[in-house]
Design a protein that fits this description.
alpha/beta; 6 helices; 7 strands; binds iron/sulfur cluster
Length: about 190
């Protein structure tokens, strides 16, 4: 199974907390005015890449968590679900996913909902340049949201992910929370 892939970038720090391997796919039909990546809109852009190849690239980097971005991964939900399953079954990496769809729209689509089931945080909603806010963390405009994917799935509604970057006691998706090394350091720090 393949993903129409634009690029993979290691050690990104802008697509979620900590270091992340960002997987950028091709294809987006939202056509948000002011989109910074219109070159990714073409569904035939990039090149078809086997998900095993992408997975191997991801696991080669032990330190980093994972972000799916684009384009919009929710236009390739089946292949991204398979990739996410491999990551979640075999590693403790968190997965963030950027999409122009809202979580409410995704919950009405059974195929996209499958992908939601394997990710931790969804950064949802189309980019609205009239609501652009450069001070927002990990988002471009104030209509977009950090969504707790698992809680939203359970409750069948949008549950906001309460991200607190400086709270070392926060259990999920904290900076480097998948790095065993840093987890150990955090434990030592909290015990101290
Ligand atoms: S959803 Fe993202 S990639 Fe797609 S048009 Fe909007 S800003 Fe661009």
């Amino acid at each position: 199974m393949t993903i129409q892939l634009m690029d993979i970038i290691d050690y990104t720090t802008s697509d979620g907390p900590g270091f992340r391997t960002s997987v950028y796919c091709a294809g987006c039909n939202h056509k948000c005015k002011g989109c910074q990546n219109p070159h990714t809109w073409n569904f035939n852009g990039g090149k078809p890449t086997d998900i095993k190849e992408i997975y191997n690239r991801i696991i080669a980097n032990e330190m980093s968590d994972v972000t799916f971005s684009g384009g919009d991964p929710m236009y390739q939900p089946i292949a991204f679900t398979e990739l996410a399953k491999m990551i979640k079954t075999n590693t403790d990496k968190t997965i963030w996913c950027y999409t122009g769809f809202t979580v409410e729209e995704i919950l009405r689509n059974p195929v996209q909902t499958q992908l939601l089931g394997w990710i931790d945080v969804l950064v949802d909603g189309r980019y609205d340049e009239t609501l652009r806010d450069p001070d927002l963390l990990f988002m471009g405009s104030s209509n977009q949201r950090l969504i707790d994917a698992q809680a939203s799935l359970r409750e069948r509604r949008a549950v906001i992910y309460d991200y607190e970057p400086y709270n070392l006691r926060q259990p999920a998706c904290v900076i480097h929370d998948n790095s065993k090394i840093l987890k150990e350091r955090n434990k030592e720090f909290l015990a101290w």
